[in-house]
């Protein structure tokens, strides 16, 4: 048996960090069969569509997908692909690594972000010139599902849960989210804190060590996780998992980074750490731990890419990770 992995490098640095990560996976003694698919701005320019059907089908039928990043077409690529794998949970661990300069070296938390609703699947409209609207959907079903996932995830790790919301202003929609989360929490007798998301943003900057699992509506999870990236040394370090019931897609939190794309200096750590999450999701816990240890070892001892103050190329970092494995 081997794991059938769809690989979608996408655009920009996605095309650099994804092959680097495949190299790391190939150096493990886990049987993989990789199939590469196209998507993103380049594909749109060449083939007239950012997300060809063959890519969606490949992702749907694979055991799991490793995704790099898309550029301007990201919304037309990654949102449908998350849906293709039936992902309702976006898991984003954020931690500071020894040896890497961090504003907040105590940071070690995980965002569990609702992945199907809210403004990202909202309907935008321009009613008349200069007057625009956004309608978003928040349901009890989806809110309960992410809450159950978040409480389970926290329980497995013995972690505390903080629920982010803005139900004081968005009384109906965030109110629904909060009511549903409370219902699930109460059914389980779970203990958790609730915080308004704007205040939470401040607390995350000032005392990130006080937070473990942060359960978020869709947009808040996106914003707060990038904020937290700033606490630990940048987007080059943040992995993510888009988890469904029987399929999943793993990707760095960052985008195609056009400012550094093509220079061979993108930090591959976020994508390699995403691959570690993929290994664990596949049940290959030992291999996942080995990849994480190897990446952490290289972050700590170098070589490091320029975003972390180093001078190394993506390839040097990849070589060092593979050597440790
Ligand atoms: P970005 O994440 O691409 O870049 C933000 C900053 O982080 C840049 O300074 C970049 O150089 C740096 N950075 C990102 N990844 C890095 C890495 N691996 N190593 C070192 N430095 C790294 O976000 P930005 O600039 O807002 O968006 C650029 C493009 O990416 C846009 O077209 C956007 O639509 C797309 N995007 C795609 C996403 C996806 O495919 N999931 C997510 C976010 C943005
Ligand atoms: Mg984002």
From TrEMBL:
Region of interest: Disordered: 298-317
Keyword Lyase in record: no
Signal peptide: none
GO MF: isocitrate dehydrogenase (NAD+) activity
Domain of life from the UniProt record: Archaea
Pfam families per the UniProt record, alphabetical: Iso_dh
Keyword hit for Oxidoreductase: yes
Isopropylmalate dehydrogenase-like domain: residues covered: 4-321
Regions that span the bilayer: none
One of the protein's GO biological processes: isocitrate metabolic process
Record keywords: Oxidoreductase
Family of the protein in this entry: Belongs to the isocitrate and isopropylmalate dehydrogenases family.
Name of the protein in its database record: NAD-dependent isocitrate dehydrogenase
């Amino acid at each position: 048996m081997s794991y059938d992995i769809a690989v979608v490098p996408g655009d920009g640095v996605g095309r650099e960090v994804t092959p680097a990560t495949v190299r790391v996976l190939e150096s493990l003694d886990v049987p993989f069969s990789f199939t590469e698919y196209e998507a993103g701005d380049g594909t749109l320019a060449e083939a007239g569509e950012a997300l060809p059907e063959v890519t969606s089908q490949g992702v749907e039928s694979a055991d799991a997908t490793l995704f790099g990043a898309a550029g301007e077409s990201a919304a037309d690529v990654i949102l449908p692909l998350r849906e293709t794998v039936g992902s309702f949970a976006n898991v984003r661990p954020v931690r500071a690594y020894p040896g890497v300069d961090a504003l907040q070296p105590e940071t070690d938390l995980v965002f569990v972000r609702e992945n199907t609703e809210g403004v990202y699947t909202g309907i935008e409209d321009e009613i008349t010139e200069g007057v625009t609207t956004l309608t978003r959907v928040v349901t009890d079903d989806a809110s309960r599902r992410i809450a159950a996932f978040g409480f389970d995830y926290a329980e497995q790790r013995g972690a505390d849960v903080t629920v982010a919301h803005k139900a004081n202003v968005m009384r109906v929609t965030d109110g629904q989210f909060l009511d549903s989360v409370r219902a699930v929490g109460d059914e389980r007798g779970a203990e958790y804190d609730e915080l308004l998301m704007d205040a939470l943003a401040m607390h995350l900057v000032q005392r990130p060590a006080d937070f473990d699992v942060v359960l978020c509506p869709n947009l808040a999870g996106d914003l707060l996780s990038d904020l937290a990236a700033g606490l630990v040394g940048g987007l080059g370090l943040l992995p993510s998992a888009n988890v469904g019931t029987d399929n999943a897609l793993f990707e760095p939190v960052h985008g195609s980074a056009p400012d550094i794309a093509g220079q061979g200096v993108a930090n591959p750590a976020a994508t390699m750490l995403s691959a570690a999450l993929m290994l664990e999701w596949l049940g290959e816990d030992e291999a996942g731990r080995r990849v994480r240890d190897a990446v952490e070892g290289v972050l700590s001892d170098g070589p490091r890419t320029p975003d972390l103050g180093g001078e190394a190329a993506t390839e040097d970092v990849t070589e060092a990770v593979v050597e440790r494995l």
